[in-house]
Amino acid sequence: MASGKLNVKPLITDTFRFEESVEAFNFAVHMPPSSVKAQIIVAE
Fold it and tell me: Does the pTM exceed 0.90?
């Protein structure tokens, strides 16, 4: 992944801001079948 040879961006289906961290973790506990991976953005 670090080399860029594997494109993992399509696997990230849900993105949350740092301020939404609690919501993101609650979402991950009950993640819908259509979601693959959720991420929290710390800085933009």
Answer: no
